[in-house]
Write a structure and sequence with these properties.
Length: about 325
């Protein structure tokens, strides 16, 4: 009997050790990221669910300055592109926001190549997003699948032991394993971004009269309100907020300018990105509903799930229609 108990204990400990080893290898896996214009250590730390200090230590950096094209070691799992893969489907498979995987790889087209390595950032301590149906092919898969496999193995071993004897003590680690990647802390967030660049990320619009952090300027609010007025005056309130959210998502994305004004007035190869800038409607004053929607978007409300584009349902442009759709509100379509 004692021998049987000892064997069960050893088996469970071995299973836990194996699971811990696999999980650590998944989360501590070192991928690389190449910096682009507008990058900062703070922005990169947000993308990869880590801290500025962690990035500095990994890369032996002594200051916060970065060069365009600089290669950084980052804590991330990776995915090898297979036939039929798209960036959108990869994001769905690993259960991470589509905009996160785009920013982590600086890929803003639909073109991928078989064998291409794609970074897949994931928060520490969470089960990775690979579906359990994929675990039969754990060998050679990404660190995400290995973590799920380890969790499954630990659970199965624990169930097997407890089912034989409810009175037998089970092996429980004294604490959760500590992985190298840590969730972004408030102190780290303050390390590499000036106060004026911070956006209040409240989940909903504050109640009337409630004091809130005003991280945006009055000119930002005025300009965004006028864009919303020009683009979605006749649309439902949520569609108005969504127009503002697209602008804010571009501000946060590395491939667009990093201010409300620069995003709205961006000109690429002679073409403005927003029609009201071209036809002059951007200069028309906004009504109270559009101002309210702009305040919500500036505070972090995003009905679009991080979309970067929008258009109305009468559009026939094949380029914009080819983009993955996030949601539809009223006559407006929001896409990645």
């Amino acid at each position: 009997m004692m021998k049987s108990k000892r064997m069960k204990s050893i088996l469970l400990k071995a299973g836990f050790a194996l699971g811990l080893s696999l999980a650590i290898s998944a989360h501590a896996y070192a991928a690389t990221y190449t910096t682009v214009s507008g990058d900062s250590l703070y922005k990169i730390s947000q993308i990869y669910y880590t801290t500025v200090d962690n990035l500095m230590n990994r890369n032996n950096l002594t200051n916060y300055s970065l060069d365009i094209g600089q290669t950084l070691n980052v804590p991330s799992s990776t995915h090898t592109v297979q036939r039929g893969d798209t960036l959108f489907f990869i994001a769905q498979r690993y259960k991470i926001p589509f905009n996160t995987i785009r920013r982590a790889n600086n890929i803003y087209t639909d073109e991928l190549h078989i064998g291409q390595i794609v970074n897949v950032p994931q928060p520490a301590g969470l089960t990775a997003g690979a579906p359990l149906s994929d675990l039969s092919a754990v060998s050679g898969t990404s660190g995400a699948a290995l973590t799920s496999a380890a969790d499954t193995l630990i659970s199965a071993l624990a169930s097997a032991v407890s089912s034989e004897s409810s009175s037998e003590p089970s092996f429980e680690p004294s604490s959760e394993p500590s992985f190298e990647v840590a969730p972004l802390s408030d102190s780290a967030a303050a390390t590499d971004t000036p106060p004026a660049a911070k956006i209040n990320t409240a989940e909903s619009e504050p109640a009337a009269g409630e004091a809130v952090e005003t991280a945006y300027s009055a000119s930002d609010l005025d300009l965004l309100s006028r864009l919303i007025m020009a683009e979605a005056q006749a649309e439902p309130y949520d569609a108005k907020v969504a127009v503002g959210a697209v602008v804010m998502n571009r501000v946060k994305a590395g491939s667009f300018p990093d201010s409300v004004s620069d995003v709205i007035y961006q000109n690429i190869n002679g073409y403005y990105q927003f029609t009201p800038v071209v036809n002059g409607w951007i200069d028309k004053p906004a009504n109270a509903d559009c101002i309210k929607a702009a305040k919500a978007a500036l505070s972090g409300v995003d009905p679009t799930n991080e979309s970067l584009f929008y258009y109305d349902n009468t559009t026939t442009n094949p380029w914009i229609l080819a983009k993955p759709v996030s949601t539809k509100i009223g006559n407006m379509v929001y896409a990645y």
